[in-house]
Amino acid sequence: MNTVEEQKSLIRAALGREPLDLLIKNVQVVNLYTGEIEPGVIGVKAGRIVTSEASALEAEQTFDGAGRYAVPGFIDSHVHIDSTLLTPANLAELIVPAGTTTLLADPMEISNVAGLKGLETLVQMAEGVPYHIFLEVSSRVPTAPGLETTGGRLGLKEVEQVLRWPSAISLGELDPSKVLGMGDEYLAKVQAAYSLGKIANGHAAGLDGQKLVAYACGGLLDDHECVDYEDAYARLRLGLAVLVREGSTERNLQMILKGAHKANMDTRHLMFCTDDKHPDDILAEGHINYMVRRAIELGYSPVEAIQMASLNAAIHFRIDHLIGSLSPNRWADILLVDDLRQMVPSDVFVKGRWAAHEGKLVEKPPQPVAPDWILDTVKVTRGRQAADFELHGATPQARVRVIDIYPDQIINREAETTLKVIDGAVIPDIENDVLKLAVVERYGKNGNIGVTFVRGFGLQRGALASSVSHDHHNIVVVGTNDEDMAVCVRAIEAAHGGLAVAADGKALGILPLPIGGLLSDQPAGQVSAELGKINSIAKQLGCKLPAPFMSLSFISLPTVPELGLTDRGLVDVRKHVLIDSVIEGN
Amino acid sequence: MNTVEEQKSLIRAALGREPLDLLIKNVQVVNLYTGEIEPGVIGVKAGRIVTSEASALEAEQTFDGAGRYAVPGFIDSHVHIDSTLLTPANLAELIVPAGTTTLLADPMEISNVAGLKGLETLVQMAEGVPYHIFLEVSSRVPTAPGLETTGGRLGLKEVEQVLRWPSAISLGELDPSKVLGMGDEYLAKVQAAYSLGKIANGHAAGLDGQKLVAYACGGLLDDHECVDYEDAYARLRLGLAVLVREGSTERNLQMILKGAHKANMDTRHLMFCTDDKHPDDILAEGHINYMVRRAIELGYSPVEAIQMASLNAAIHFRIDHLIGSLSPNRWADILLVDDLRQMVPSDVFVKGRWAAHEGKLVEKPPQPVAPDWILDTVKVTRGRQAADFELHGATPQARVRVIDIYPDQIINREAETTLKVIDGAVIPDIENDVLKLAVVERYGKNGNIGVTFVRGFGLQRGALASSVSHDHHNIVVVGTNDEDMAVCVRAIEAAHGGLAVAADGKALGILPLPIGGLLSDQPAGQVSAELGKINSIAKQLGCKLPAPFMSLSFISLPTVPELGLTDRGLVDVRKHVLIDSVIEGN
Description:
Two copies of one chain form a homodimer.
Chain A: H1 4-14, E1 20-30, E2 37-45, E3 48-51, E4 59-64, E5 69-72, E6 74-79, H2 88-95, E7 100-105, H3 108-125, E8 132-137, H4 156-163, E9 168-174, H5 176-180, H6 184-195, E10 199-202, H7 209-216, E11 222-223, H8 229-237, E12 241-245, H9 253-262, E13 270-273, H10 279-285, H11 288-297, H12 302-309, H13 311-316, E14 334-337, E15 345-350, E16 353-357, E17 360-361, E18 397-405, E19 412-422, E20 425-426, E21 434-440, E22 449-455, E23 463-466, E24 475-479, H14 482-494, E25 498-503, E26 506-512, H15 524-540, H16 548-555, E27 563-566, E28 569-572, E29 577-579, E30 582-584
Parallel strand pairs in A: 1-4, 1-5, 6-7, 7-8, 8-9, 9-10, 11-12, 12-13, 18-22
Antiparallel strand pairs in A: 1-2, 2-3, 5-14, 14-15, 15-16, 16-17, 18-19, 18-30, 19-20, 21-22, 21-24, 23-24, 23-25, 25-26, 27-28, 28-29
């Protein structure tokens, strides 16, 4: 909130007793409360909107809207900043010119690496960025206690502490295992959120029927894991809002909105999020503005699409007094847009400050210095040698489990296959795209390595690895052979974290992510270029996935069905237990 | 919130591992999230809804819905319990059978009489009632500091204290004088509300244009003072929700909803309230269910009308995780209704308990004992004698101000007229319905009496008086002669508060309101009958108003344009200053 003095200056400006700070003239105001688009102005004082009515108020500064549409800044209703690989400051270059002025961010990644200290460091590094960050306080760090090794932990005490921060707006995504498993700690976290006037976000991947009802009984109020309209409809029926997601590999918008539009479903409980989106994809297609554009293409009116991108999320997260519309007293987060159907803002204002123009930031945000300790979090005990990845086979053939991945979805399917055993080791079947997958513990705690098989990457030779691997963020590595897998791990260790690609015993490319092993300290353009480079090497090695490192980072999730791989081994997500990779023949 | 153990029992019930407490079978479920009406059941555990999907779950108890509609309980989004003249327990008899299961109540009246102690007493007296009460914490007690005498005061400290209560959901209606006057205390109260995750309610009576914009800049999020659609539209444009009001004398529903329906305005920011409604009117026409019925008659679908009566208010007040729909984990507040267009529930459940059947409570709520001190708050110093009401005139005629009242509205108009002066006293002009109006201080503090003239009551003889007079709750009295006015004041004093009617020097009727001078300790039927009796005596005396005592109780409001009368004298509401009743000739 403003101070009382700021509030008074807003009121005085509205009454014409004090000049406005800024008057944006000659705009078509998109009013999300009435659904009207009408000629007007935007008057700003102390970072807030005073009026959007045509008015004779005077201002210190005027800005010519040149007849463009004035649209409220967009809200990403669920995002992991860490998935962009950028610091919050460098991320600004990508999202603010695209019109995203607010992130509702779950700092789960950095918390898994370094607990509350990591979370606080990320928040400190975000100071002074030209957009708003509100926190969805990570509810499950670690995500799968007993099934994975992490660097940090957020218990009930830490979560309650962060929930009290003014920037905290909700308890972050709580997965079904915690709710249906009725863990006291997690249910107490949900109650802590509501008792502090905040909501609890869901993550109901793969649930339906009775289990979905039971999940809703846990007090969660939304879900961002809907894959299609059937999922979305099942959740709306239960009074859960749907956070429609369009990330790098989780592309749910078309299937959800096509169905919703056809069914003429009320849109007020639908909103947009990216969850996990890499910088190259944001650069190529946009951010939340891309979702608005797609929604309009699918038949929604611009007003409805913009509501999903702003007001609906503001109301759901109970911050509609701060953002989500161009109404008095809300933050002056304003996009000036030539064409609502394209939704590419030519100017962006945040808190009344001119923030972006024609795709570029007006001013470079302050570059925070990362503390030393967060630049040194990758401590590998085992995984440097090919032998560390061997899976023992006692018979000429072994029956194994395979994680079957979908190209554009976060979920996967459990499969089985038979592999050859040579010299006592089960070997991948490159011809049939059955590759080896491993997760290497990287907090210097126990040297665990989990190994299994995966189908869908299509590598013909070499290996890929990443120290971003949800949610424990150990090193995940996929390969056609153990030697290249070890090369990747060594490259990541040397870079203190990153994405690596190797073949024929040599590292071919590395994108260093030294901040917690998760984030680059480089600008968006460079990270995007380097990511493009290693992606293209991966492609040369035969990889068929559009975003191989994003896909890789999700395989280890022990919370998204059907299988996950952690440093402790293969996890049956539905049963929340460890299972064997080799079923017969070891 | 539930305890963790209750939450677990809900989840276990949903999973079929524990029987439900109650299963209401064979209903048509009205789903306010999807807008669908479909066959289903309602499963209840620990007072909460587990499911509304058809299901094979077992239950301790079943209830046959007999094909009726299952509708979420209604929410009165802004009400002064004190205006019903009933204790919260006795009020249950009227509202619960009509389907209102939640009151969002501003305890402003009792706070003006007795401060925080009064507010706490009302809340204690409400313990165990078969409906939910959430508090809109009174923001302005007194309403007009310096312009009126009250018994109590709620400063920033007291308001912050109450805002922290789990039952507090907002800062109550803050009127324009506080916001446009930029009082530090009031703006700090607004910020306190938001910093505690709660909203701030508006009361923007009579505002438009620049002043309305400035008012919205004060951080208020809604208004319940809209008289017509033009008012409502002006507020929606500014991002303010509209609490459509239908009380005893403030009847705004038809004019607002007719316009909104014609304009095809989005209904999500519209909700219903009664504000001030007498028991006889509730008995005669209903409560929020009456508004639903009227909305449907005006062209809205039953789903839209029910949304305005429940979900919309729950979302606006940020308690949609608790009430507003028949979704899992919400309180099991359920109406069973034969005909959605009539909207008269034949059975009502609150927190899963069977609360009303065929217009009657199933169980009488516990009758709280009012503490002694609250039964003795009417302490009259002056006003017992006719001479106390004399207005001096020095010339044969005097020019005076007149409060011109509208029959069905809370607002009034300033007028002037010329009256005769006899024996040095300005006298009423009964023929032209210009009567004397007085407000007598009743807290034993200073013996103030304010006197002016009013048009609209139509009394031919006698006088009416009330110790309910917003918001200071001194004794307001209207009469054709000073003697009968004094008789009324003496009758109210003897009854420790109440509504009185007198003529020819004799008290003809009294409805005693001994609790704070505001509430009866008698049941609804008796209060309603006694109110009917004194209303009919008032009619016999010539009064033309449908609810004369309600109209009388609002005339003294120093916050609703254009004029108000307090014990200090006549108030120009727009300028917030005392003005003379006699303009020329005294």
